[in-house]
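[audit] Reproducing an earlier prediction to check determinism. Same input, same settings, fresh worker. If the tokens differ from the archived copy the diff job will pick it up downstream; this log only records the rerun itself.
[audit] input (189 residues):
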Amino acid sequence: MLTYLPLVLLLAFAAAQPIPFDATRWTLVGHGATSMVYLERPSLFIENGVALLRDSSFGDGTIEFDVALHGHASFAGVAFRALSENDYELIYLRPHLSRRPDALHYTPIDNGGEAWQLYSGPGYTGEAELPLNRWLHVKLVVAGYEARLFVDGAANAQLTVTSLKRPWTRGMIGLWESLGGANFSNVIV
């Protein structure tokens, strides 16, 4: 069994490489999406819309990425189990509400409609400090109908959603931004 260990480690390392931001891998829906170097690393700037990873099939597991928030009222997050550009689960950060009980938010997206007004308070929102103009690490762990979000290396989840609202399915992952723009880097699934 020991002879297989190097191959297992090699495969684990290969699987943990960041996904590049190029048009052959991502479908960009919305406007203002640009691949660029930001804070000395390759990134995808999204002004308003969603970038879906083509051919991804995510059901349960971990999605990690870095995001640079720019300080204005905006929303930046991760879409998962996406069946289309209009149907997915969404967890996002609200930098203008940093350190408040609703700095993190969950909402299902159905037929392009956001239902965040229906999903607020415990189980749908969480508190986190969201520093600006630097890379902030975000880790999302999804299992069944539960999602846990860890921000900036936190040991405990700052948002735990125990009842995701869309039916369980495998779907694409994506990066999402609304109303102002954020940069995303180092996406690992």
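[audit] rerun output stored. Observation attached for the diff report: Residues 1-14 have pLDDT under 50 and may be disordered.
[audit] end
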